[in-house]
Amino acid sequence: MIKAIFWDNDGILVDTEKLYYKSCKITFDKIGIEINEDIYREYFLKKSYGTWHLAKEQGFSDKDISEMRNERNKVYSQLLKDNIEIIDGVDNVLKLLFGKIKMGVVTSSRRDHFEIIHQQTQFLKYFDFVVTSDDCKKVKPDPEPYLKALQLSGFDKNNCIVVEDSERGLRSALDAGLKCIIIPTELTKYFDFTGAEKILKDISELPSIILEA
Fold first, then answer.
1. Rounded to two decimals, what is the model's pTM?
2. How many angstroms separate the CA atoms of 52 and 24, rounded?
3. With contact defined as beta carbons under 8 Å apart, do 13 and 91 qualify?
4. Domain edges within the chain
5. Closest C-alpha among 44, 39, 41 to residue 29
């Protein structure tokens, strides 16, 4: 029986990956390094490495990269304030599951970015806890975020399930010993989701799976 759901944030609740990609592209364009969607998929959504090594290979110092990272974060914050798009159907699904099952968000986003996003969605009332990158030493694909969520839930891993859209998120969940349902996005639909419990086309399919499990 499923007693808790651990939701990814970007790509599952809100369509923000394209904004993060845009903020990275803007930042790297200024120093003459091209970041395209293929590079973004590989280094961010699969490996979670980021692309700062590309700047380092061009001779930029650690100080330069730190300043660029700060600039990227400022650009992303502004984009979030102007452009939040909620994934279709999320509000109805959260309302349907609220009160029936414990729910938490597990995200690699910074806490400040997460709060900017959900000042606009009003979704936080549905969740019992949130795990951001500020709460962990390591982020996805490391299992630490989902192990922390498991601890916060108070349930056995067999009573919990993860909802993700990316390969790095799937690996994080599986390495934490958790089952994972995948709902791919346009950016992640060609990833390797071997090991996923189910791969859904739409979030509206989720409640019947959860409540009947």
1. 0.91
2. 10
3. no
4. 4-14+86-212, 17-83
5. 39
DSSP H or E run through 136: none
Q: Is the pLDDT of residue 159 over 90?
A: yes
Strands 129-131 and 102-106: what pairing? parallel
Q: How far is CA 36 from CA 43, 53, 76, 142, 158, in A?
A: 11, 15, 17, 25, 39
Residues 107 and 119: their CA atoms lie apart, in Å, by: 16
- How far, in Å, are 83, 84, 122, 213 from residue 79 at the CA level? 6, 8, 18, 38
Report CA Rg, the chain. Answer: 17
Confidence band for 50, pLDDT divided at 50, 70 and 90: confident
Strand order of the β-sheet with 160-164 is: 129-131, 102-106, 4-7, 160-164, 179-182, 198-199
* Fold of the domain spanning 4-14+86-212: Rossmann fold (3.40.50)
